[in-house]
Every structure is written in structure tokens, then in C-alpha cells.
Amino acid sequence: MSHLASSAARPKRLGARIARGGRSCALPAMLLAALVLGGSGETAAADKAIVVRAARLVTPDGELQDGGLVVIRDGKIAQVGETAPADAVIHEYDDAAICPGLIDVAAALGAFGNLSENQSALQPAAAARDALDRFAPQLDAALRSGVTAFALSPDDQNLVGGRIAICRSGGAGVGGLIAPDGPMKLSLSPDVFKSDREPTSRTGALLMLRSAIESARSGKAAAGDALAQLAAGKIPAIVSAPSGADALAASEMVEDYGLKLTIMHTRDALDVAGEVARRKVGVIVGPLTWNSSRRETAAAAAYEKAGVPVAIAGGAPLFSADSVRLGAALAARGGLSAAAARRAITSNAAAVLGMSERLGAVKPGLEADIVLFSGDPIDLRSRVLAVYVGGRRVYLAPADADEQ
Predict the structure, then answer these.
(1) What secondary structure letter does DSSP report for 367?
(2) Nearest C-alpha neighbor of 108 from the set 66, 142, 60
(3) Rounded-to-integer distance, Cα 190 and Cα 196, Å
(4) Domain that residue 196 falls in
(5) 89-92 and 147-152: which strand pairing?
(6) Model's pTM, two decimal places?
(7) Which of 75, 120, 220, 338 gives the lowest tally of CB atoms within 10 Å of its CB?
């Protein structure tokens, strides 16, 4: 059955039940939100753990298992699936599912102005972090859709666009930088071609990029030069590759130079998946929309079949705030396994951004960024009930949301 139409559990109660020392009291969600969310999110007493308990939980491998209990201490996940500490603050969500915070691997959320400098096609020192407006209302919209982190990425205007910033959603309360210097952004898109500067063609673009990498590998670059670090395989890169030929050209550079590349490619996945897999390159698919072709929605499944790890991009705010989940749901309808679809917007997304040690899974030691859904996260009928960022509850759905 399609994950666009599979049954989504409806919670018995949208409000959370807060229990201390085994005693509990039920509060309506709106009153609870007013009491604990305030302007900056909920915090527990310093010596108290927070326990989030629900009917199901998305595991690190993307499976949706019965029974979910997460213990949070000091903003991190301390335990999963074990007995709750006796003095813990209990947040109960009945029939809900606990999911890692969703991650959009290619976004322009909170971007203030352009995300590129077009004087030169090579901008390795540019930093997307400088364009972040952490007070942008787009961030709150993303948060309420379950997206707790995103990659603020330079656009496709330059061959080497600069460093991607890994950011939090949530606006003034919790919005901000997680990792200011993430992967390098590269582009083989036709957007790179300009009439008033080089390159002016795809041939020229590939020649310029290869020449820049070879020059950086020669040892002439200054210590700490970002392009030299990329050429040495010390930092990862994400490369936009709109056509199958672009995807193959990018994968060849992995083989030729030992680069750590993830390729953003959807259109010709059925044709290039085998070659991409042979070169052990990860991929990003999307954004996917209701207007995407069957060939596009089947792309992630083709990569999975070939053994390629897949992440799915949302592309907000150019696409809707819930575009990450929509992409995963459409990819599942196109043949991607349910577990892989969940990983594509959580753990695989974190891996692409080099953030697996901090984000992307519900497991001990990682930051407590979790979302409570009323059902399977890749079932579009499931709603966001609550969002936790760094162990703080920063969003709680209103009590009447179930009726809307």
C-alpha cells in the first residue's frame, strides 16, 4: 500500500501528560504550551530528565518499531527504550510516533539576499552562513513541519560556490548555526554559464573545475585554503548535476581525484545509478513535487536498488515547508522502501552533511532533536504534534488541531 494513503494513527490526546514521581496531571495543549513553551522553548529542572514516550519510534535504520521511550538529559539523548528514571518529567503522546528531527539537505531558509557572488565562478572562500537571517519567519514554518535542521546552501550560479552552513530552524527562539563551515557547494548546472565571464559552456565549466582542483592539489595553495582541503579529500562537497552526463562527470572526479562528493541528481537516475554505485558516491534526490514525473519519483528507488545511499532534498522556501516529507512520500510511492525513505530525510541527510555524530537518529549521545508525529512520518496524513530541539520542546500542536 502506498505511504501516501496508508493509515495514520490519530492520537488519543494532543496534550502531553506531565508526570513527576509517578503522579500525572492532564493539561489541555494550549494551556500547556502557554505554560512551558514561552518564547524560547521548554526547559526542565537542571536535575530532572525529560522522558518522551509514544506508541512507536523510528529506529536509526529507518524502521518504525512498536514502543518508543526516549530519555533526554542536558539537551542530548541519554537512553532509548529503557525504563524511565523515577523522578523524570514524562511527556506522553499516546498513539504517536517518535522520529528524529527532519533535515533538509538543500534549502534557502532564512537566506537574506542572494546566495552567490557572481564576479567569479570560483568562490571557495564564500560562506552561506553570512546570508542567514535567524529571525526569518520561514524558520518557524519549517519547524512546525518537523524540520529541525537544514543546509543553507549557495545556489547553482558558481562552479565553486563556497561553504554550506548547517543551521537550526525555529526563528528567534532556537534558530541559528549548528556548523558554520559545512560541505563545499559545487555546481555543474547550466546556471553557471555566463556571457560576461567564464565559463560560457559545459566544456569550459568542466575544464575550469578540473584545473582548479589540480592547481589546489599541486601544493601551491595557502595553508587552510578551502579548495585545497577539498582537493585533498579533507572536506566533503555537494555538487549539483542536473543531467546524467553531469552526474557521470562528477562521479569521474571522485575516481580521478579522491574527492568526497555527494551528487544532486534526479532526472536520469535510472540510467546512471549503476555507475554512481560503482564509484561509491552518495546522492541527493529532489526536490520532488506533485508535478514530478514518474521517472523522477522512481529515482530514489533506482539508487537504492543499486546500493547507493540516498538523501532527499526539500528545497524550502522555494518549495513548501513540508516538502521534505512530501519528497520522501513520493519516493516511497515510486518504489523506495519505507525504511530508506525515512532515512533519506533523517540519518542519510545527516551523513551527507557530515553531521552523523550529532543529528539524524534517535540514539544515545546525539542531540535531542525529535519530532512527534500522529502516525508514520512518510504518511502525509500524519501531523506534527510536538517538536524538540536540543532537548527543549519548542512546538506543541494546539488542542483543536485534530479538528482542523
Answers:
(1) B
(2) 142
(3) 14
(4) 102-352
(5) unpaired
(6) 0.86
(7) 220
Per residue in 38-96, pLDDT (tens digit) is 444 555 555 689 999 999 999 999 999 999 999 999 999 999 987 888 888 999 998 99
**Distance between CA 316 and CA 307 in Å, rounded?**
28
Dihedral sign of CA atoms 162, 168, 169, 174 in order = negative
Q: Are residues 296 and 397 in the same domain?
A: no
147-197 pLDDT, tens digit per residue, is 999 999 998 888 898 999 999 987 545 568 898 899 999 999 888 888 788
- Secondary structure letter of residue 50 according to DSSP: E
Do the Cβ atoms of 109 and 142 come closer than 8 Å?
Answer: yes
Q: Please check whether residues 297 and 184 belong to one and the same domain.
A: yes
Whether residue 346 sits in one domain with residue 219: yes
Give the separation between CA 379 and CA 360, rounded to whole angstroms. Answer: 19
**Count of domains forming the chain:** 2
Question: Among candidates 122, 174, 150, which has minimal Cα distance to 352?
Answer: 150
Same domain flag for 383 and 324: no
Looking at residue 397, which CATH number applies to its domain? 2.30.40.10
Query: Beta 282-285 vs 261-264: how paired, if at all?
Result: parallel
Q: What are 42's three cell numbers?
A: 521548554
8 Å CB contact between 227 and 124: yes
Whether the CB-CB separation of 139 and 158 falls below 8 Å is answered with no
- Cβ 288 vs Cβ 296: under 8 Å: yes
* Phi, psi (degrees; rounded to nearest 5) at 226: -65, -40
- Is residue 206 located within the same domain as residue 58? no
Under 8 Å between Cβ of 323 and 314: yes
Name residue 147's beta-bridge partners: 102
DSSP notation for 266-309: -TTHHHHHHHHHHTT-EEEE----TT--HHHHTHHHHHHHHT--
Instruction: Locate 270 and state its grid cell.
Output: 535510472
